[in-house]
């Protein structure tokens, strides 16, 4: 009997503990949402995200890096903007005025590109891009210090985008005019256009059979019907 009483007392104690844990007030759903939002903001400010510790978050690009990406993807739909090949590197230096034909030439640009890129690669990264600009800056602005020269070259590139050439205009020439003047066409080509030079379409390409009953070349077609059916004339009684 004593053992049975002890078991009952233990059961009462465990039940009371369970009730104390479950009696804690539930937090509203809005408070949980606030906690999640504050956690996300704190992790983003620390350079991490919910994906894991140390994972990168989107950061605002500098004007120089934005120009780098614009030129990196120019003319290549598969480019990611993280690497730039030699052709677009040369275009950037030309469009942004880095090449002046005196201190910096196209040859200098190609040499620096080959110098900063990895041997097994055909492209340069953004860090290698800045290193290449530093090489050109010291040669372009010899009278300035290294940092000041780089700053001047960066200003030439920041905010710039590739220059797209305009559409080539057709040049009028006597030969082209003669070939496109429909009034001078002969033979079957002449039959494809009317007096105004407008194409006749299918009627100018296919022989249409005339089933009106008139002979070919007859110029008074339809005049008989007009004479017979004159308006205002009554029939004879």
Task: Give an account of the 3D structure.
Helix 4 packs across helix 5 and helix 5 (106-116) crosses helix 6 (126-140). This protein is mostly helical and 237 residues long. It has a domain at 63-156: Recoverin, domain 1. Mean pLDDT is 75; it is low at 37-57. The longest helix is centred in the first third of the chain and has 21 residues, at 2-22. It has a two-stranded antiparallel ribbon with strand order 1-2. Helix content is 48%, strand content 2%. It is found in: Cytoplasm. It comes from Kryptolebias marmoratus (Mangrove killifish). Keywords: Cytoplasm.
Kindly report the oligomeric state of this protein. single chain
Largest sheet: 2 strands, antiparallel
CATH topology of the domain at 63-156: Recoverin, domain 1
Structural class by helix and strand composition: mainly alpha
Distance between the termini: 146 Å
Q: What's the CATH architecture name of the domain at 63-156?
A: Orthogonal Bundle
What is the rounded Rg?
43 Å
Overall pLDDT: 75
Tally of strands: 2
CATH class value of the domain at 63-156 = Mainly Alpha
Helix content: 40-55%
Strand order of the largest sheet: 1-2
Helix segment count? Answer: 10
Q: Quick one: overall form?
A: elongated
Uncertain stretches of 5 or more adjacent residues: 37-57
CATH homologous superfamily identity of the domain at 63-156: EF-hand
InterPro entries: EF-hand-dom_pair, TPP/p25
Biased composition (Basic and acidic residues): 1-12, 28-42
Pfam families: p25-alpha (PF05517)
GO molecular function: tubulin binding
């Amino acid at each position: 009997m004593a053992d049975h009483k002890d078991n009952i007392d233990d059961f009462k104690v465990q039940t009371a503990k369970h009730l104390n844990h479950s009696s804690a007030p539930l937090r509203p759903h809005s408070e949980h949402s606030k906690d999640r939002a504050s956690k996300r903001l704190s992790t983003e400010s620390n350079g991490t995200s919910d994906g894991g510790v140390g994972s990168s978050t989107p950061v605002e690009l500098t004007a120089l890096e934005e120009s780098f990406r614009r030129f990196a993807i120019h003319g290549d739909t598969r480019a990611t903007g993280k690497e730039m090949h030699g052709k677009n590197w040369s275009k950037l230096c030309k469009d942004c005025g880095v090449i002046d034909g005196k201190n910096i030439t196209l040859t200098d640009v190609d040499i620096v590109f080959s110098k900063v890129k990895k041997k097994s690669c055909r492209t340069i990264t953004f860090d290698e891009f800045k290193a290449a600009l530093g090489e050109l800056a010291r040669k372009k602005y010899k009278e300035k210090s290294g940092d000041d020269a780089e700053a001047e070259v960066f200003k030439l590139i920041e905010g710039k985008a590739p220059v797209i050439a305009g559409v080539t205009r057709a040049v009028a020439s006597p030969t082209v005019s003669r070939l496109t003047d429909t009034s001078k066409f002969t033979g079957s080509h002449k039959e494809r256009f009317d007096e105004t030079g407008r194409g006749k379409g299918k009627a100018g390409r296919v022989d249409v059979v005339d089933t009106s009953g008139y002979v070919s070349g007859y110029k008074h077609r339809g005049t008989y019907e007009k004479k017979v059916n004159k308006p205002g004339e009554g029939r004879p009684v």
